[in-house]
Task: inverse folding
């Protein structure tokens, strides 16, 4: 891992304005991930957000991506489609503390809505005119690839490096070997000066060493190390002796 120096950081930290009394007890302001959070230092290369289902990772990463000028449902800054009724208003409380301007290459990958992004690319390309968007995503149409193949295509073809990338559960469709390919691609993009903010449940992905890792635990977000996360410890316990572990679970 030969990396550029930290001068390439695009976003140093995120400040969170206090919620109003009206906001305090309602979504998204009452999520555990935001509890007591005033600011979040980002790593110049990779920042991981980890936590149980429903702890608020997607909501936070969506608000960060919107603050960086991206479409709430995913894609680059050039996408403006929406197939959902609304996104949360959390971004209004966020301020990105930047090092100069944001890079020209940026992307928000949302595992749960990537299908919609692929559909939007097809729709825009059908309109004809300029250069086909799908060509930037590899040689095959995204809808003609498997779920996991299309994710890897996106990261290895569309991401150019020297960019800012928000990934929400990028491992969702990937096999263990696919996750290793994703790690190698992330590392190659990092060596080209990229910065990633990634929410993940993958104990393998979060082993990427050049990172800061935050976990939602006991009701708030705290910095930790990969081996201390619940995800890592539970996976280790299960895989060390799966038969015994599952027998106890099913008793
Ligand atoms: N529009 C909404 N209105 C009210 N509650 C919502 C809304 N969107 C999400 N929530 C709730 O907010 C909580 C956090 O959701 P979020 O998707 O951010 O969690 P997450 O940490 O990404 O979970 P997962 O690991 O399952 O992806 C969930 O309990 C969810 O039901
Ligand atoms: Mg999520």
Result:
């Amino acid at each position: 891992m030969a990396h550029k120096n930290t001068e390439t950081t695009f976003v140093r930290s995120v400040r969170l304005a206090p919620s109003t009394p009206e906001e305090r007890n309602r979504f998204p302001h009452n999520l555990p991930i935001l509890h007591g959070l005033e600011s979040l230092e980002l790593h110049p290369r990779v920042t991981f957000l980890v936590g149980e289902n429903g702890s608020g990772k997607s909501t936070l990463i969506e608000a960060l991506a919107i603050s960086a000028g991206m479409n709430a449902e995913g894609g680059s800054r050039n996408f403006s489609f929406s197939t959902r009724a609304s996104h949360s208003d959390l971004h209004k409380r966020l301020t990105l503390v930047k090092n100069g301007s944001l890079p020209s290459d940026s992307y928000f990958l949302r595992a749960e809505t990537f299908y919609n992004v692929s559909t939007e690319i097809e729709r825009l390309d059908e309109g004809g005119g300029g250069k086909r968007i799908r060509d930037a995503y590899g040689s095959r149409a995204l809808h003609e690839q498997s779920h996991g193949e299309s994710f890897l295509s996106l990261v290895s073809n569309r991401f150019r490096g020297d960019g800012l990338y928000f990934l929400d559960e990028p491992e969702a469709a990937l096999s263990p070997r696919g996750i290793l390919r994703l790690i190698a691609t992330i590392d190659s993009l990092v060596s080209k000066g990229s910065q990633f903010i990634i929410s993940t449940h993958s104990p393998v992905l979060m082993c990427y060493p050049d990172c800061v890792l935050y976990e939602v635990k006991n009701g708030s977000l705290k910095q930790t190390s990969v081996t201390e996360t619940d995800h890592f410890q539970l996976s280790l316990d299960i895989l060390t002796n799966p038969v015994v572990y599952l027998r106890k679970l099913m008793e």
Observations:
- The chain has a mean pLDDT of 89.
- The beta strands are 11-16, 39-41, 46-51, 94-98, 106-110, 164-168, 195-199, 211-217, 220-224.
- The pocket of magnesium ion (ligand 2) is lined by residues 57-58, 168-169 (CB under 6 Å).
